[in-house]
């Protein structure tokens, strides 16, 4: 599962616009935006790729970050990739991106240590 980073417990109204992890979209709106079905989004939850937050009433709420992941899965599925394989590909891509980011950070830190 790709964790959806959680920000501070309280958000100002302005922060919500910029926070890509803020769960702003209902399942219906998310499905409309992606041109897919609510069932497709449920299947991503069942596959463990995306775990949407829940509203007080128990309804799924999706963030922009989660919608980008869902859109990428949708592209792969539309190309004929089985949904489980598409979810695994997205997970591996995310892990690779995170490893590259950490490597770059460590390299930068190492370079700054040698300059000191």
TrEMBL record:
<feature type="domain" description="HTH merR-type">
    <location>
        <begin position="24"/>
        <end position="92"/>
    </location>
</feature>
<dbReference type="InterPro" id="IPR047057">
    <property type="entry name" value="MerR_fam"/>
</dbReference>
<dbReference type="GO" id="GO:0003677">
    <property type="term" value="F:DNA binding"/>
</dbReference>
<keyword id="KW-0238">DNA-binding</keyword>
<dbReference type="GO" id="GO:0003700">
    <property type="term" value="F:DNA-binding transcription factor activity"/>
</dbReference>
<dbReference type="InterPro" id="IPR009061">
    <property type="entry name" value="DNA-bd_dom_put_sf"/>
</dbReference>
<dbReference type="InterPro" id="IPR000551">
    <property type="entry name" value="MerR-type_HTH_dom"/>
</dbReference>
<dbReference type="Pfam" id="PF13411">
    <property type="entry name" value="MerR_1"/>
</dbReference>
<protein>
    <submittedName>
        <fullName>MerR family transcriptional regulator</fullName>
    </submittedName>
</protein>
């Amino acid at each position: 599962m790709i964790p959806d980073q959680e920000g501070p417990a309280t958000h100002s109204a302005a922060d919500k616009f910029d926070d890509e992890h803020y769960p702003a979209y209902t399942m219906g709106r998310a499905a409309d935006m992606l041109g897919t079905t609510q069932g497709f989004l449920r299947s991503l939850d069942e596959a463990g790729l995306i775990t949407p937050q829940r509203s007080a009433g128990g309804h799924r709420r999706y963030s922009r970050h989660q919608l980008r992941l869902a859109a990428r899965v949708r592209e792969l599925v539309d190309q004929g990739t089985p949904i489980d394989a598409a979810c695994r590909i997205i997970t591996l891509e995310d892990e690779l991106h995170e490893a590259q980011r950490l490597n770059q950070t460590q390299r930068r830190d190492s370079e700054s240590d040698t300059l000191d």
